[in-house]
Write a structure and sequence with these properties.
Organism: Paratractidigestivibacter faecalis
Subcellular location: Cell membrane
Membrane topology: Multi-pass membrane protein
Structural class: mainly alpha
Number of domains: 2
Shape: globular
Order of helices and strands: HHHHHHHHHHH
Pfam families: EII-Sor
InterPro entries: GatZ_KbaZ_carbometab, PTS_IIC_man
C-alpha cells in the first residue's frame, strides 16, 4: 500500500512538473521507470522497463487536439507491476500499451474538468482579482495531478493481485507470444520516429548503425560512439564550407560597380 502511494505520488509530481515548472522531459518512461524501480527496491528492472517503453513511445506526441496514450500512467504501472509480480519485462511491456490506452481517458477528461477553472479565471480577470486567477491556475494543476495519481494508485492496489493471478494463468505459448510482441514494440517505436525524421540526405547513417549492430555485433553505446565520430567528420567536411561560401557570396555582392558599367547603364 505504501509503495503504491509513493509510486503514484512521485509519478504524478513528475508529470506536474511539466505543467507548472516548464517542460524538462522528466515525464518520460526513461525517467519514470528508474524512479519507480528505486521506490520498489529494484532500480535495474525499472531502468530496463523504462528504457524499453521509451523506445516504444519516443515518437509519440499530441498534435493539435489529438490525445496520445497516457505515457506516465502506463510507464509507472508497468514498472511497478513488473517488479511486484515478478513477470518478465517483455510480458509487462506488452501489457503497458493497453494500460496507457485505457488511461488515455483521464487525459481526455482532465481538460473537460478544467474548463470550470478557465471560465472562473475569466470572471476573476474581469474583476481584476489576481488572487483568484492564481487559485484557478493551481486548481487546474491539482486536477491534472489527481488524474495521474488516482489511476496509478488504484491500478497498483487493485491490479497487483489481479495481474499476478492473470500472469500465472497465461499458458506458456501465450507467454512466449507476449514476449515476442514485447520485443517488437521497441522496433515499432523506432520505426515511428524514423518516419517522422527521415531524410534521404542522412539515411546512410541509419544503415551504418544497422550494419554495425547486425554484422559486427556493436553495442548500442558503441553505435552511439561511431555516430558521434560520423557527425564530427560530416561537420569537418561540410560544416565549414557553408560559412566560407556565404562569405564569398557576400563579398561578391559588396564589390563596387565599375564606372564603365555605370556609363553603359
Amino acid at each position: 500500500m505504501l509503495q503504491g502511494f509513493l509510486v503514484a505520488l512521485v509519478s504524478a509530481l513528475i508529470y506536474l512538473e511539466s505543467r507548472l515548472g516548464g517542460q524538462h522531459m522528466l515525464d518520460r518512461p526513461i525517467i519514470i521507470g528508474p524512479v519507480v524501480g528505486l521506490i520498489m527496491g529494484d532500480p535495474v528492472t525499472g531502468l530496463v522497463v523504462g528504457g524499453q517503453l521509451e523506445l516504444v513511445w519516443m515518437g509519440l506526441n499530441g498534435i493539435g487536439t489529438t490525445t496520445p496514450p497516457n505515457v506516465v500512467v502506463g510507464s509507472a504501472l508497468a514498472t511497478a507491476l513488473a517488479i511486484s509480480t515478478g513477470a518478465s519485462y517483455e510480458t509487462t511491456l506488452a501489457l503497458a500499451v493497453p494500460i496507457a490506452v485505457v488511461a488515455q481517458l483521464c487525459d481526455i477528461a482532465a481538460p473537460i474538468v478544467n474548463t470550470f477553472f478557465a471560465h472562473q479565471a475569466d470572471r476573476f480577470a474581469n474583476q481584476e482579482n489576481y488572487r483568484g486567477i492564481d487559485l484557478c491556475i493551481w486548481g487546474g494543476g491539482i486536477v491534472y495531478f489527481l488524474f495521474k495519481f488516482v489511476p496509478i494508485f488504484l491500478g497498483y492496489v487493485l491490479g497487483s493481485g489481479v495481474i499476478t493471478s492473470f500472469v500465472d494463468q497465461i499458458p506458456p505459448v501465450i507467454q512466449e507470444g507476449l514476449n515476442q510482441s514485447g520485443n517488437l514494440l521497441p522496433a515499432l517505436g523506432v520505426a515511428m520516429l524514423i518516419q517522422l525524421t527521415w531524410d534521404k540526405k542522412f539515411g546512410v547513417f541509419l544503415f551504418l548503425g544497422f550494419a554495425l549492430a547486425a554484422f559486427l555485433n556493436v553495442s548500442t553505446l558503441g553505435a552511439a560512439f561511431f555516430g558521434a565520430i560520423a557527425a564530427v567528420i560530416y561537420y569537418m567536411l561540410s560544416g565549414k564550407q557553408a560559412p566560407a561560401a556565404a562569405l564569398e557570396t557576400q563579398g561578391a555582392a559588396s564589390e563596387p560597380i565599375d564606372d564603365e558599367d555605370d556609363e553603359e547603364l
